[in-house]
Structures are given as C-alpha cells and as structure tokens.
Amino acid sequence: MPNRRFGLFDFNPDTGELFREGRAVRLQAQPARLLALLIAARGGIVTRESLHDALWPDGTTVDFDRGLNFAIAQVRSALGDSAESPAFIRTVPKRGYQFIAPLSEPAPIEAAVVGPVAVEPIRERRGLSRRAVYRLGIAAAAVVAAITIAVIQASRPTEARIAVARFENETGNLDFDRFAGTITDSVVASLTSQTAGRFGVIGNAMILRRARSFQDLDEIASTLKAEYVILGQVQRDGPRIRVLAHLIRMPGKTHLKVSRLEVDSSRSEAQSAEQIVSDLMGRLNSLPPVIP
After folding, report:
1. Rounded to whole angstroms, how far apart are CA atoms 56 and 184?
2. pTM for this one?
3. Cβ(46)–Cβ(97) under 8 Å?
4. What is the pLDDT of residue 147?
5. Which among 122, 135, 145, 216 would be 20 to 30 A from 274, CA to CA?
C-alpha cells in the first residue's frame, strides 16, 4: 500500500512509519495499526467494535477501553492533535472514531534529484531505447534513496527506552484505582509528546500493568530493553491526594528524579500528568545520548 500524506505528515500503513516533514515520529506498533485502520476508512466512522476485532483479534476484552483510549492518545500525541479541536481524528461519541484530514499521495520523485544522466541522442537501431534509459533512471533513484537512508540510520544515535509502570494506588480506597490507571496513561502520552522522539516510551506492555508486588525492575528492564523506568504512586495525606513519579536508571536502580504533585479538583489527570512530565524533563534533558 502506498504512503499516505496528510498535512505535514507521511504515513506508511505497511510498516507503521510516520514522518513529519521528512523526520521520523515515534509511534508504537499498536497505535500505528490503529492509525492505518482509520486512514483506510477514508473518512468513514470506524466503530470501537471493529477496532477491538482488528487490534485484539485473540478476543481479549480485559481493559479494552483503557487500551483503546491509550492507543488513540498515542496517535493524537504523535500528530499534535486534540480531542477538543481535532484536525485529524474526531471522536464520534458512543460509536468510534473518524479520520477527518484530507489525504493525498506523496509527491513523485522527479528524475532531476537523481543527478544528471549523460546519454547520447538515440539513433535508430543503436544505443539504448527510451524505455531502457527510463528504467536505468528509476534504478539509480532507488540506489540513491537506499544509500541516503542507510547513512541517516547509521548516523542516528540509538534510541533510549523509558518504561512507565502502572501507578500504584496506595490510598486504601479502591475508587482511586481508575484514577491511578488514567494518570499512568496520561503520563505515557505526555512523555511521548514532550520527548519528541528522543526516547522510546513504553507504557502498554503487560509486564508494566502488574500490581506493584509482582513487578520486578530487573525483569522490566531486561524484557523491554529499557534504560529507564518510571514508577508512580498515588497517596492520600488527609483530604489531599499526592502523586509521586520516580525516574530510575537501570540496571543500577539509581533514582535520578522524584516528581511530587498535590492533586486538586481543578486539575484534570491529563494536566497533572503534563506537570509531572515537565518536572521530569529537566532531568531527562540533561542525560547524555545513548552511544551505539
């Protein structure tokens, strides 16, 4: 399937690769499949049921709403879109989602970008035919493109990974379980947006959704190839609710930063998560790049 262009973006539905003005945008596999399904509908509404069947074909229904909401949040974060004033993905209440941006084919590569190809005027029964010259031009373009991609990939530093474990509800009130899950997903979405592709953010792996007593930092880092792990806590201090986020470097389990936030009713989970991530970003931005 050819690449699809919308706005400043190019998207390859087959590989899940997303580019903004030629620069790669980080998008995990499941959100990428979700984006491909929405684009393939060509403006039609894709129901939540059909997304469930396509993204969870094994019949998994546990935390489906949270999983789908997380995937939508990841796609919107990658596109810089919002649910309140969407430019790309519109929520159709109680039904599903709709891709609303105009689609166009990527601009064809002109022969001029390949470089000059010196050929003598074609004479009857001698030299190359026009079709052969055209095929040679296409082959040369493919070689140039392959070399360019290889050079870019070779010069790009290895992407460090951050695994975000589910925040633990330590209030003793089961009503805050949903809040802990929502704040976790919001932190993942905000972290993906604010790191701008410098880090690979992992938040939907099953190993990260276990209860804290069943979580093992060494196992998380080894399984997910993560250099950093974020552990979160939701605590109660009298009438106040406090959220803590621990940024830990692996494998040494070194605490690099602890973000503390007092939550009140005037701030949504998304706003709280954005403030937590902004606090962590000061430390993340000071970290050296990973050397291949």
Report:
1. 21
2. 0.50
3. yes
4. 54
5. 216
CATH class of this structure's domain 160-284: alpha beta
Residues of the chain with CATH 3.40.50.10070: 160-284
CA 180 and chain centroid, separation: 21
Determine the Cα–Cα distance for residues 205 and 78; give it in Å rounded to an integer. 19
pLDDT of residue 119: 44
3-state secondary structure 81-97: CCCCCCCCEEEECCCEE
Peptide bond into 93 cis (omega under 30): no
CATH for the 4-99 domain, from 3.40.1110.10, 1.10.10.10, 2.30.30.180, 2.60.220.30: 1.10.10.10
pLDDT at 290: 55
Beta strands in 2-149, from DSSP E residues, in sequence order: 4-6, 9-12, 17-20, 23-25, 45-47, 89-92, 96-99
* Total length of the chain: 292
pLDDT score of 174: 87
The confidence score (pLDDT) of residue 3 equals 84
Residue pair 207/219 in contact by the 8 Å Cβ criterion: yes
pLDDT, mean of each 10-residue run, the chain (292 residues):
85 92 90 93 90 77 74 92 89 92 63 44 52 62 55 53 92 87 88 79 84 84 92 89 94 92 80 90 80 47
Strand order in the sheet with 23-25: 4-6, 9-12, 17-20, 23-25
Q: What is the pLDDT of residue 124?
A: 46
The two structure tokens encoding residue 17: 């690769």
3-class SS at 288?
Answer: coil
